[in-house]
Amino acid sequence: MPPTPTTARTAGRYLLLVVLPALAVAVVLHLGAPLGGGPALGTPRAPAAAPAGDALAHPELVLAQLLVILVVTRACGLLARRVGQPQVIGEMLGGILLGPSLFGALAPAAAGALFPPSSLGALGALSQVGMVLFMFLVGLELDTTALRAQGHAAVLTSHVSIVFPFALGATLALAVYGRFAPPGVPFAVFALFLGAAMSVTAFPVLARILTERGLLRTPLGTLAISAAAVDDVTAWMILAGIMAMVRSTSGQTAPWVPPAGLVLFIAAVYLVRHPLRRRVSGAFARRGQLGHDLMAMLVALVLVGACVTEAIGVHALFGSFVVGLALAPERRVARAVRDRLEDLLVVVLLPLYFAFTGLRTRLDLLDDVGAWGWAAAILGVAVAGKLGGSALAAGISGVPWRDALALGALMNTRGLMELVILNVGLDLGVLSLSLYSMMVLMAVATTVMTQPLLAALGVTSEKVVVR
Fold first, then answer.
1. What secondary structure does DSSP assign to 310-341, as a single string?
2. Which among 104, 301, 330, 389 is least surrounded, fewest beta carbons within 10 Å?
3. 227 and 147 in contact (C-beta within 8 Å)?
């Protein structure tokens, strides 16, 4: 039976916007192969932190750090809300302000006394616990079933919003590899990581923006949240593969262990997902609430998943994310877990992560016009790939162009998810400190521009029309 004109058009769009960019990534990897990577990738090149025990020997220092971090990030968050930005933007900026980019530059003695290198181990450990729980919540709150009801526009948009920025990020690697890649990082790893970092959307921040503007239950909101869900799952799968490549290349694990272990872990979670859901939903139904025993069991599962993926050479965050995905269909349980954990995460643990990120962000390394020019180029590529690609895919699929641009602006929101990926890259030694700092600036800028763009487009729940 010959294809209908509609089917042919859909296939043509998919070929143009998904298949060709994917082929472009393969071409980039081929072109970059001669650039090499020097000696084998060694141990992670992030600034080494002292063991957590060094700081815990002085609990008064840890308590003082917590106090300052909470006050500064909370104040910045409240200021952000006053100017129409999500609170998380202010908290991200507050973390950067506490680092060497501002506090360390204006008052180096005070910054050194409050955040000595010996204390970063404890701060990093506490923030890591927070991120394990946060990634569990991200996985738990993803609901990809809504994507099926959105038709070809959602399918095309979600795929383009991954592949298009990924291709541009990988292409950008050709230009920045020689300048900013750490010694010994293979070009393929570097290019794939930049592609993954450009592809992510901040699912939690996006959901809050949609809720605040009354767009969450509109067709545009459903399309955006569904596409973002697919983006995050795909980006983390790609990142898991990159982490496996890095750790096998560096000799930290045997080459076959990360991929084989990852496949076995995902298969095991997939096989037990139904009995696990029945057990969890049954316990929840009997009590009518999330009791301490059930909550302890869920946290234990999260920690087991995190420990397994860390042990096989991927990353602890991926394990907690997969456990959350396995339980995501239990929406009542998901809401109850979120209600229990959200306050602890938002008020205490996430600000610690913002501060830990800020302490590793070195804007002082961008000390000339050329460096800031590269930072602007990275931002331009990020916006063109995510906003431009998403809007183009939606527009040619029949979405009115104003709403297509609004969708692109929403998908361009990177927020905390981008910081997570960038910190992983820094810990793995794939990013240099200067490139890491540029990418942090990009994450903040792309999230800040979302609300003004939506306001400029006049997007409200009453004006949204997505066919």
1. HHTTS-HHHHHHHHHHHHTT-HHHHHHHHHHH
2. 330
3. yes
| Nearest-5° Cα angle at 318, 316 to 319 | 70
Taking only the tens place, the pLDDT of each residue in 279-306 is: 999 989 888 888 888 999 999 999 999 9
Is 75 in contact with 94 (CB distance < 8 Å)? Answer: yes
Computed over every residue of the chain, the mean pLDDT equals 83
Number of residues assigned to the chain: 467
CA Rg value for the chain: 22
Q: Give dist(CA 327, CA 305) in Å, integer.
A: 13
Q: Domain 145-349+367-457 falls in which CATH fold?
A: Na+/H+ antiporter like fold (1.20.1530)
pLDDT higher than 80, residue 246: no
Q: Please give the helix or strand (H or E) that residue 206 lies within, else none.
A: helix 203-212
Q: Are 458 and 403 in contact (CB under 8 A)?
A: no
What DSSP string runs through 97-125?
A: HTSTTTHHHH-HHHHHHHS-GGGHHHHHH
Q: What single DSSP character describes residue 184?
A: T
Quick: pLDDT tens for 417-430.
Answer: 888 889 888 988 89
Q: What is the mean pLDDT of residues 398-402?
A: 85
Structure tokens that stand for 409 in this block: 């602006």
| CB distance 323 to 401 below 8 Å | no
Are the C-beta atoms of residues 340 and 299 closer than 8 Å to each other? no
Show me where the domains of the chain are located.
145-349+367-457
